[in-house]
């Protein structure tokens, strides 16, 4: 049988893909790594079909490896006779906890089939929430910015895990970037926030993103001329 890694999207239950929803309807058990993904899954799956897995709040690598091995054992045992799913926010292959399960299954249960059902990533949904167009030919970098980190270099960046917005903002503006922040976008849990003022989101929150664009960037696509105030016909 098969273990499906199903991407739930950025948090809105309506942004789960049709295929993802079909898989959730078809499997006998749906496992979740956390409260937020479980909340979204419950909009599509009755609680009786949601399985429990225990993940400790720790950075100890030995404890984490044991936890993932225990989780893989539980999932594999169920998958010996039935199709099951492991859900995660965003896309299972983009900065996702599903990678830990997949690697552990591969190491200890290589006979178990694994299939990924992609989901809408929080990073791409973020551009929509800010009404930012990443036009054709644009260079865009995806970076992690935890604990005040502020990677620079590319003209446009989407940063995730922004846990110190104030420090990240200070460093990026000093490097010549304009910065916008978004928190818990498309989520029903917690306050949704879009702002250019980092002090409004100074409290640490794992689900905070930032869009940084170097000052003076010009659009080069042909239709960019339609955004100008020129009276000249094009």
TrEMBL record:
Pfam annotation, one family: TP_methylase
Q: In which pathway does it act?
A: Cofactor biosynthesis; adenosylcobalamin biosynthesis
List the GO biological process terms: cobalamin biosynthetic process; methylation
Matching entries from PROSITE patterns are given as: SUMT_1
Key words of the record: Cobalamin biosynthesis, Methyltransferase, Transferase
SUPFAM superfamilies the record matches? Tetrapyrrole methylase
A single GO molecular-function term is: precorrin-2 C20-methyltransferase activity
Write the Enzyme Commission number(s) for this entry. 2.1.1.130
* Boundaries of every Tetrapyrrole methylase domain copy: 2-143
Q: InterPro entries this protein is in? A: 4pyrrol_Mease, 4pyrrol_Methylase_sf, 4pyrrole_Mease_sub1, CobI/CbiL, Uropor_MeTrfase_CS
Q: Which family does it belong to?
A: Belongs to the precorrin methyltransferase family.
Indicate what this protein is called per its UniProt record.
Cobalt-factor-II C20-methyltransferase
Q: Which gene encodes it?
A: cbiL
């Amino acid at each position: 049988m098969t273990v499906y890694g199903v991407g739930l999207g950025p948090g809105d239950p309506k942004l789960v893909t049709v295929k993802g929803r079909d898989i959730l309807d078809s499997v006998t058990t749906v496992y979740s790594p956390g409260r937020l993904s479980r909340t979204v899954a419950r909009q599509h799956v009755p609680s009786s079909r949601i399985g429990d897995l225990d993940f400790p709040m720790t950075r100890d690598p030995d404890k984490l490896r044991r936890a993932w091995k225990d989780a893989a054992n539980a999932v594999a045992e169920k998958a010996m006779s039935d199709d099951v799913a492991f859900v995660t926010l965003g896309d299972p292959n983009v900065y996702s906890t599903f990678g830990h399960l997949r690697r552990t299954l591969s190491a200890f249960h290589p006979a178990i089939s694994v299939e990924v059902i992609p989901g809408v990533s929080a990073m791409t949904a973020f551009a929509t929430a800010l009404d930012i167009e990443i036009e054709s030919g644009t260079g865009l970098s995806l970076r992690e910015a935890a604990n005040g980190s502020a990677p620079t270099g590319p003209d446009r960046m989407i940063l995730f895990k922004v846990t110190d917005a104030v420090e990240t903002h200070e460093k990026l503006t000093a490097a010549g970037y304009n910065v916008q922040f978004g928190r818990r976008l498309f989520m029903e849990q917690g306050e949704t926030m879009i702002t250019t003022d980092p002090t409004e989101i100074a409290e640490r929150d794992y689900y905070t993103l930032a869009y940084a664009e170097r000052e003076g960037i010009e659009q080069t696509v042909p239709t960019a001329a339609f955004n100008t105030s020129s009276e000249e016909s094009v």
